[in-house]
Amino acid sequence: MRVLLINGSPNEHGCTETALREVEKPLLEAGLETEFFWLGSNPISGCKACGGCQDGRCVIEDVVNAALERAKLADAYIFGSPVHYAAASGSITSFLDRFFYAAGKMHRYKPGAAVVSCRRGGSTAALDQLNKYFTISQMPIVSSQYWNMVHGNTPDEVRADAEGMQIMRTLGRNMAWLLQCIDAGHRAGIEPISPETRITTNFIR
């Protein structure tokens, strides 16, 4: 089974990657495959609300479609973001709006987790923002022993956050355990449920 780890920081080898690499360790120890995907440092367009997304692709040909191709091979996702103004980075926010809207059905029932990295504060607000993508997409959310966050202004400071590093490792072990349970369920003939036909209701009629 494969876990796709997406780094939403404009710094490829910064604090966010440091956290994600710590999550990766137990995944590899459990025999799972992992793949890292960095969003890069170039601007990412937000959703244009054009309704043109088809076959799990966005009409804007950029890093979002490249990630969606990798997502086809993934059984779970872990998204990482720095904290900017008590929120996820602008890059990963624009990315996730399109990543989920263009291919919502593909993500259904895949476990998801988010990790955030901050110097001091704003982490819980950013984590809450990222978790909302999972809850609207029928994805199991993988948790840890505390909120999935690390603190530090440099990778070395993050590595010195002993509790934060343990939280990351626990998250990796919990993700591996859930994927193993899902795999055992598949082998036992337990398949995902068929969703009801969706009902949408506007508050103003």
State the end-to-end CA separation: 46 Å
Secondary structure tally: strands = 6
Here the CATH topology equals Rossmann fold
Strand content: 15-25%
Task: Give the overall silhouette.
Answer: globular
Order of helices and strands: EHEHEEHHEHEHH
| Structural class by helix and strand composition | alpha/beta
- Spans where pLDDT lies below 50 across 5 or more residues: none
Number of separate domains: 1
Q: What percent of residues adopt helix (DSSP H or I)?
A: 40-55%
Tally of helical runs: 7
Question: Any idea what the radius of gyration is?
Answer: 17 Å
What integer is the average pLDDT? 96
The fourth-level CATH homologous superfamily is Flavodoxin domain
Describe this structure in words.
There is one protein chain. By secondary structure, this protein is of the alpha/beta class. The protein has one domain (2-187): Rossmann fold. Helix content is 41%, strand content 16%. Strands 1, 2, 3, 4, 5 and 6 form a six-stranded mixed beta sheet that branches. α1 (15-29) crosses α7 and α2 crosses α3. It is globular. The mean pLDDT is 96.
